[in-house]
Design brief:
alpha+beta, Uridine Diphospho-n-acetylenolpyruvylglucosamine Reductase, domain 3, Alpha-Beta Plaits, 4 domains, Uridine Diphospho-n-acetylenolpyruvylglucosamine Reductase, domain 2, eight-stranded antiparallel beta sheet, 34% helix, 19 strands, five-stranded antiparallel beta sheet, binds flavin-adenine dinucleotide
Length: 476
């Protein structure tokens, strides 16, 4: 393995001097360095990782981001970009060296423009996803990246993690919505590519280097996102199904009957819903079953409800569904979605867990689940399985509720080996961060790893940006 050299190993500038320098650049409110202010940036949403940020820089413009990066490079301190800190892989948490500056985009929140004809929104990196969604909705448009964390996650984090969520089946990952980006590179240069074009084959599509690369290649400061028309009608249904294969049969029928209007197709195990019933006091409005499927479809055309009813009827007749309901009101829709969206929180209340955010080809989901359940029972008899996910796009959250102190490494290895044996990916949407660096190395070919390291070296030769995340940049 080739080493990516680091210029941020030693600094001639003391932390106190450096903070003073940054305060000079950003103003009094542009820097946090008190222990209480640093605390939220010292750990991740799950509390798995702990770090010691030197300070938190809060720039207000791409120019100020560039100035912070140049100051850090000159003084020998690394930069860790941070959005809403809802990432699930520790990507925004600094290390414990005290030599990393957290760069928070939270003061860059402007929605610069919404183009109602082109259906685009230009929005700064610190804007909260939900705020951007509401601004689009006020113009009759939909920003279809939808996640349970949308009230806290910021646009820069959404871009940098290539976030997925519950609407990927219809609208794709964040990458599919990104038309243009403005980024600040590791040398502090601002690169402006805020185009709102659907068609643009003029040269390399360089914005892709900054999507899903978790702040290791540059800082995203602004984005142009493709919106969609806001559908007028929506149907939400919940089905009780006997097994994962039956769920795939329902998916097939839904694709045939409802077509592109199908937004979400979520699978939840009985174990998952037992957690939400226990901890969130929610009620399941269908009969008990080993698995449950949530379907959401939307369209501006008439006939959506009838088409969805046809899916449910066919599934019940075939025995692929044991029971089914369609929401009759917005309240009932919200109640059905609450079951799905409360699983993570309920899991947290149940106890510590080991999470696997994996994907396999849709047709292999039943085989993967069977093989993984068997391996867990055999190797880790005390663990409980909490499997659920965005099954319409092959993404399963295969989580294991495990006693504190269980070694994640061994569990991850067994689950990820099975994922790879089924032609899957060890990270469907949560990224690599610092949590899966070793696993990424293990599951990529030597050529793929070498290519990624060449890109990192080309764009960030000093390893200034988010060192230790995604790629293993230690000497070896
Ligand atoms: C309850 C819950 C539900 C979730 N559901 C989903 C889901 O369904 N689908 C999904 O994909 N994810 C999900 N997530 C994970 C998380 O919300 C997403 O990864 C989100 O995109 C992170 O955004 P953030 O602003 O919080 O980023 P952060 O956590 O702050 O950062 C994430 C990564 O991006 C980097 N980064 C942040 N901002 C920038 C920037 N401006 N420039 C460069 N790099 C940057 C950070 O360094 C870090 O590596 C969920 C999380 C929670 C807590």
């Amino acid at each position: 393995m080739q080493t990516i050299s680091s210029s941020v190993d030693g600094s001639a500038v003391s932390p106190m001097e450096f903070n003073k320098q940054l305060r000079g650049l950003l103003g009094e409110r542009g820097l946090l360095d008190g222990p209480a202010d640093l605390q939220p940036f010292s750990t991740d949403w799950r509390g798995l990782f702990k770090g010691s940020p030197l300070c938190v820089a809060l720039p207000r413009s791409a120019q100020e981001v560039g100035a912070v990066i140049r100051a850090c490079a000159a003084a020998g301190y690394a930069v860790v970009p941070s959005g809403g800190n809802t990432g699930l892989s520790g990507g925004a948490t600094p290390d414990t060296s005290g030599r990393q500056v957290v760069l928070s985009l939270s003061r860059m929140t402007a929605i610069r423009r919404i183009d109602v004809y082109g259906e685009t929104i230009e929005v700064e990196a610190g804007c909260i996803l939900q705020t951007a969604q509401e601004a689009a909705a006020a113009q009759g448009l939909l920003l279809p990246v939808t996640l349970a964390s949308q009230g806290s996650a910021r646009i820069g984090g959404i871009v940098s993690t290539n976030a997925g969520g519950t609407n990927v089946l219809r609208y794709g990952m964040a990458r599919n919505r990104i038309l243009g980006l403005e980024v600040v590179t590791a040398d502090g240069q601002i690169v402006r590519g805020l185009r709102s074009l659907r068609k643009d084959n003029a040269g390399y599509d360089w914005k892709q280097w900054f999507i899903g690369t978790e702040g290791t290649l540059g800082i995203v400061t602004c984005a142009v996102l493709q919106l969609a028309p806001m559908p007028r009608h929506r149907v939400t249904a919940l089905l009780a199904v006997p097994n994962a294969t039956a769920a795939l049969e329902v998916l097939r029928t839904a694709r045939q009957e409802v077509g592109d209007a199908l937004n979400a197709f979520e699978l939840m195990s009985r174990g998952s819903l037992e957690l939400v019933v226990r901890h969130q006091q929610l009620r399941i409005p269908v009969a008990d079953a080993p698995w449950f499927v949530l379907i959401e479809a939307s369209s501006s055309l008439q006939g959506l409800r009838e088409a969805t009813e046809a899916v449910l009827m066919a599934a019940l007749e075939r025995g692929d569904a044991l029971d089914a309901v369609i929401a009759e009101s917005q309240r009932q829709e919200a109640d059905i979605w609450a079951l799905r969206e409360s699983i993570s929180e309920a899991e947290g209340k149940e106890g510590p867990s080991i999470k696997h955010d994996v994907s396999v080809p849709v047709s292999k989901i039943p085989d993967f689940l069977e093989a993984a359940d068997e391996a867990v029972r055999l190797n880790f008899p005390g663990m409980r399985i909490n499997a659920f996910g965005h099954v319409g796009d092959g993404n399963i959250h295969y989580n294991l509720i495990a006693p504190t102190g269980t070694a994640h490494v061994e569990v991850n290895r067994i689950v990820h080996d099975l994922v790879m044996a089924h032609g899957g990916s060890i990270s469907a949407e949560h990224g690599i961060g610092q949590y899966r660096v070793d696993e990424l190395l293990r599951c990529k070919s030597a050529e793929e790893s070498a290519l990624m390291r060449r890109i990192k070296r080309a764009l960030d030769p000093s390893n200034l940006l988010n060192p230790g995340k995604v790629l293993d940049t230690r000497d070896s």
